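Re: that backbone. Tokens:
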């Protein structure tokens, strides 16, 4: 006799909005949680769907309302969107208006000349495919994932404008654009009447390229930023303080992993020194790395990844201490110099 419900209905935590902080995205009316969940890894066809479901539930229960996808997330390409679509139907359809769901297109996705880039053909087709995989009627944010030097930027921005005007998305974003191209995109989209909402760049203690012009563009133009890889693929955590564990990204070849250049003795020495600063702040290294990212005035939200629910809980706990003393910031700069 069956004595348990095989598919119990998910009941979201009624106190979820008391545990998260939300910031306005640039000069828009949209607020994003300070932490967003990226489905870049651990949601592919090679991953356990039961774990993916637990991650989504835990994130939402802690007030994380923004789930971020892309057409090529997996592996295989498209499988993260398919996994999300199945879990969305199981658990989140009645919470649709509480969620910000984003996806992207830009990198290679299917064979032939129309399967990558920034053309109107590719972006509109890819958006339609992503909507079909997720089962959504629209995305809250649709991004161009990377600059395409072979397509006029005007065409790419016109395609994003069309995606909004056709009801496929509410807002548009850019990812991995340099400052000059970002500024040009901002002006084109403004003239079209579909303002740029957000930029998604890589940013962490070891990769600070956005400070060389991009953050100022975003602040000046009123564009938000959700930054990815805040823990440098896990390097800015306690995982690698004593070597490379078997279950880490560095040990899994099917993931976009750390490489030898990321695990040099010099860099690991810096990681250990940063960990000492974090311990003095009564934080884990991962928590301090997240807090440091959010300390940048241009950053609206920090896009975290997770393979275990405990990692999401640890990241949310970082919000309890986001302030830094001048001495702490100076110590971090000395370590990184």
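Recovered sequence:
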């Amino acid at each position: 006799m069956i004595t348990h419900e095989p598919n119990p209905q998910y009941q979201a935590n009624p106190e979820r909005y008391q545990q998260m902080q939300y910031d306005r995205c640039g000069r828009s009316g949209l607020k994003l949680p300070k932490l967003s969940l990226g489905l870049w890894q651990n949601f592919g066809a090679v991953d356990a769907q039961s774990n993916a479901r637990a991650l989504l539930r835990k994130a939402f229960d802690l007030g994380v309302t923004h789930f971020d996808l892309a057409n090529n997330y997996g592996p295989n390409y498209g499988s993260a969107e398919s996994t999300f679509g199945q879990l969305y139907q199981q658990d989140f359809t009645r919470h649709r208006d509480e969620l910000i769901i984003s996806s992207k297109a830009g990198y290679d996705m299917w064979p032939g000349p129309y399967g990558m880039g920034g053309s109107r053909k590719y972006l509109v087709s890819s958006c339609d495919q992503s909507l079909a995989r997720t089962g959504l009627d629209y995305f809250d944010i649709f991004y161009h994932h990377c600059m395409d030097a072979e397509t006029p930027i005007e065409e790419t921005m016109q395609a994003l404008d069309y995606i909004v005007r056709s009801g496929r998305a509410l807002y548009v974003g850019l990812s991995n654009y340099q400052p000059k191209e970002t500024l040009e995109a901002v002006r084109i989209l403004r003239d079209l009447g579909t303002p740029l909402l957000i930029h998604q760049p890589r940013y962490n203690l070891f990769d600070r390229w956005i400070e060389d012009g991009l953050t100022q563009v975003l602040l000046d133009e009123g564009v938000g930023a959700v930054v990815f890889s805040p823990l440098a693929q896990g390097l800015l955590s306690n995982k690698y303080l004593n070597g490379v564990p078997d279950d880490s990204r560095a040990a899994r070849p099917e993931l976009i992993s750390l490489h030898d250049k990321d695990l040099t003795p010099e860099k690991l020495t810096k990681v250990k020194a940063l960990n000492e600063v974090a311990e003095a702040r009564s934080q884990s290294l991962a928590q301090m790395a997240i807090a440091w990212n959010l300390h940048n005035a241009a950053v609206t939200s920090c896009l975290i990844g997770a393979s275990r629910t405990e990692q999401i809980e640890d990241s949310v706990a970082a919000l309890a201490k986001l302030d830094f003393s001048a001495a702490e910031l100076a110590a971090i700069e000395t370590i990184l110099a």
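The beta strands are 22-24, 31-33, 35-38, 66-68, 100-105, 139-144, 169-175, 196-200, 224-228, 301-304. The chain is about 35% helix and 15% strand.
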